[in-house]
Design brief:
about 260 residues; alpha/beta; 5 strands; 9 helices
Length: about 260
Amino acid sequence: MNSQATPHTAVHPQRTVSVAPAPGATPPARRSLLRAALTGTAVLGTGLAISAEPAVAAPPTAAPRNRPTTAEEALRELSAGNRRWRTFRQQHPDESPAVRQSLTTSQHPFALVLGCIDSRVPPEMVFDQGLGDLMTIRSGGQVLDEAVLGSLAYGVLELGIPLLMVLGHQSCGAVKATVQADQSGERLPAHIQYLADQITPAIDRGKVGDARVDATIDANIRLIRARLAAEPDLAAKVDSGALSIVGARYELTTQRVHRVS
């Protein structure tokens, strides 16, 4: 991913912080069960099988490919995957029977991507990644709410993912609708107005027409990245060097992803 600006994230020495359980906090046993369930390691009880298929021998488990373990390595892998995508040289990695079998017991995604719901920008495709590689959360205009924040926090705090990318894109419909509503003074239908309310602070009123929409797309990426970096639990991970939070943008015309900082 050809960076347009030097990343702001700095790596600091590791430090350990002991925090006493807060009143009303989830007991350790329940936390362990939640972690096991969401990582796919929980053992399910015996129940009725619906349309059960005949048992087949498990395919052999192939040696896993070298997975990124740092934010820098994750960015390089995403950059290489996007290069394959935009040059029509996709490898469609991690889709083999062996990989599918290995993922029945655990998952170790190397990047967390917060993207838009736009059907033209599926992260696994634009980065040419496969099963178990990315944890993706998508909402209109990458808007944050409690469900999105909780999902992102789970990926970072429970799975130890080192890279969190806020991925916006060219011609974002949520941003365009927000800018148009801001200009007309009209309210958008039902829950769509919630998205607009969250995006409105990013509107670049120094531009007009399509340039305003385009500039607001970038400003919205920066705003969301800043909000995430201000979340205490995520900020602590950034300060320790265990996490990098970056902004990026996908261009529909070229299929290229580049950094926004």
